[in-house]
Structure formats: C-alpha cells, structure tokens
Design brief:
Elements lengths: L12 H7 L14 H10 L4 H17 L4 H8 L5 H11 L5 H7 L4 H8 L2 E4 L2 E4 L2 E6 L4 E6 L3 H4 L13 H9 L5 E7 L5 H6 L3 E8 L2 H13 L5 E4 L32 E9 L6 E9 L3
Parallel strand pairs: 5-6, 6-7
Antiparallel strand pairs: 1-2, 3-4, 5-8, 8-9
Helix pairs in contact: 3-4, 4-5, 5-6
The protein binds S-adenosylmethionine.
S-adenosylmethionine (SAM) binds next to helix 9, helix 10 and strand 8.
InterPro entries: DUF7059, SAM-dependent_MTases_sf
Pfam families: DUF7059
Organism: Mobilicoccus caccae
Length: 292
C-alpha cells in the first residue's frame, strides 16, 4: 500500500486545506450500507479498546488531548492495516490512496465509502470529510460522526462547525441518571452522544438542535448505531427549563421562556426524560460560557 503521507510528524493540513474550503456535505448512510460499514469498523478493531491497544496508552492519551505527534509516529510503523488506514483518515487527517481505502473498507468498498460521503477526492487520493470516532460504554460500541477539528484540518473552524465528543459531553453523560423512560428529549443533540446513551433507557428518543448540520450528523450517528431517533429542528431558549418532551407533535420544537434566560454566549446542552405520566419529567443540563 502506498500512503501519500507516512512521515512521522508531517503536517496534516497541506492537502486537507484544499478539500475543506467550506464545510463539506454531511455523510448520509443508506440502509443497505449500515451493516457493511459497521462490520468494517468492528473487524478493523476501530474501537476505543482497539485504538488504545494499537497506539499504546501514551500516544492514545496524547491523541485524546489533541496532540497527534506520538500517534503519527506509532501509526507510521504499522504499515497498511485497516486500523492504521482508518486512523490516518479520521484521526490524522491524512490522504490515503484508493488501495488503502479498499483495504480499510472491504465490505463497504471504496465506492460505497464515496457514496456515503465519508471521503472526498484530492490529488493524492482521498481525505475524510468528517470525524468518525469510536465511542462506547460498558455495554456498547458506537461511532460518532462530527466535523473534523482544526488540529486535523489545520484550518479554522467554519461557522456551522458541529463539535464531536468533548469533556462537557462526557461529564453530562456521566451525570445523567439512566432511569427507564418511555421518551427522552435530547436538546442540543449535536453529534448525538447523549441520545446514543439515552437509547438504552428509553423507548423513544426525540433529539433537537437549532443546527440542521448537527441534525444531519446526529442522523448519521443514529443510523450507524442502528437506532431510530425522532430528529427535529428546534430552538430552546433556556437550558435549565427545557420544553416538556410530552405533547409535542410539530416538526419543530420551540420554547420561549421569560425566566432563567440564557445569557448570550452561553452554550448549552440538555437531556430531559418523561418519567411516566405525561406531566412527570426531569432534566439534566450543562452549560458552558463562551467568550469570557
Ligand atoms: C456543545 S454542543 C453539545 C452537543 C451534545 N449534546 C454533547 O453533549 O456533546 C451544543 C449543541 O446545542 C445546539 N444548541 C445551542 N443552542 C441551542 C438552542 N438554543 N436550541 C437548540 N439547540 C441549541 C448547538 O447547535 C450544538 O449542536
């Protein structure tokens, strides 16, 4: 296999910069490619445990903190295994050639990966159009799609950037009680991480976001997890008092609140659960201050 970039520590921005002049289209996963893609990712061991085992704790930990140099060195020594190709594409932002792509996706096929929109062509091969990372809990492994970060592309984020899993996502996931519920509302779903968790406790997931791009990534994440979510564009004006998940039938869920107003610059995310009768529900939310 002929990788277009194998040098440890080589900057990853040169080719991706051309490819990412503006936000690329969000991948769409057709039903017939769900199983092949899941099997390709699983069989490559593209899981949290598989990546940690392949890179070692130090390089894997550095990669989680946004330092790609140790991971790049380790991956350069691993030849063209499917896992190494997946890491080059989605973690390092490297271009890989057609042969490498076919090696990493034997069931989906290079044509299938292009059809889904996970890669885009550049002079030297293909680059990833999005971040696709394994994520999981004790009972499941999922893959979460979001926009590539600036460390990977070497470019500033676009205004419509959809964040992947971050520290606040993990904190909210850890804080959220997993009580059985008929229906869970994930406000500000972003890449869909909270909805993924909620699916284990709820019969029905309603996930909203003000960003159409976020909803498209959440749809991809849900499809790859073989989950069905009711995705709706909606704007919540207060993360501390989210709309009741019951009784909403419109395609867009909007809430206006005169109290507990969200100061400008406050980014929020929230999960609310209907706990039984239509009037009973609880919520967990997190908020972070931007621009302070
Ligand atoms: C930081 S991300 C969090 C995503 C995900 N819930 C998580 O835990 O990682 C916040 C998301 O909330 C959405 N959002 C921000 N303000 C919102 C609002 N007022 N109404 C609906 N969605 C909002 C953003 O578009 C973004 O996708």
């Amino acid at each position: 296999m002929d990788e277009t970039r194998t040098e440890a520590g080589a900057p990853s921005s040169a080719q991706t910069a051309t490819a990412y002049g503006q936000s690329p289209p969000v991948p769409v996963l057709p039903p017939e490619l769900v199983d092949p893609l899941r099997r390709d990712l699983s069989e490559a061991d593209y899981t949290v445990e598989g990546i940690t085992a392949a890179l070692g704790d130090v390089a894997a930990g550095a990669m989680m903190r946004g330092d790609l140099v140790p991971a790049r060195r380790v991956i350069a020594g691993q030849g063209g295994t499917p896992l190494a190709v997946l890491l080059r594409l989605f973690a390092l932002g490297d271009a890989v050639d057609e042969e490498a792509l076919a090696t990493a996706f034997p069931r989906t096929g290079a044509a299938g990966v292009r059809r889904v929109g996970l890669v885009a062509g550049v002079d030297t091969g293909v680059v990833a159009t999005c971040d696709l990372r394994p994520y999981g809990d004790e009972s499941a492994t999922w893959w979460i799609a979001s926009d590539l970060g600036e460390i990977t592309t070497g470019r500033p984020l676009h205004p419509d950037h959809v964040l992947g899993v971050g520290g606040a996502s993990l904190t909210l996931a850890a804080w959220t009680p997993r009580l059985p519920a008929p229906r869970v509302l994930d406000l500000g779903t972003g890449c869909g991480i909270q909805a993924l968790h909620a699916a284990a406790q709820a019969q029905e997931i309603v996930a909203t976001d003000l960003s159409e791009r976020a909803l498209a990534f959440a749809a991809f994440t849900a499809a790859l997890a073989q989950q069905r979510w009711d995705l709706r564009r909606g704007i919540c004006s207060s993360p501390s008092r989210p709309a009741s998940p019951t009784g909403s039938t419109s395609s867009s869920a909007t809430r206006r609140s005169s109290s507990a107003r969200v100061p400008s610059g406050c980014r929020s995310t929230s999960t609310a659960t209907a706990g039984g009768p239509a009037t009973r529900w609880w919520s967990r939310s997190s908020a972070g201050w931007a621009g302070i």
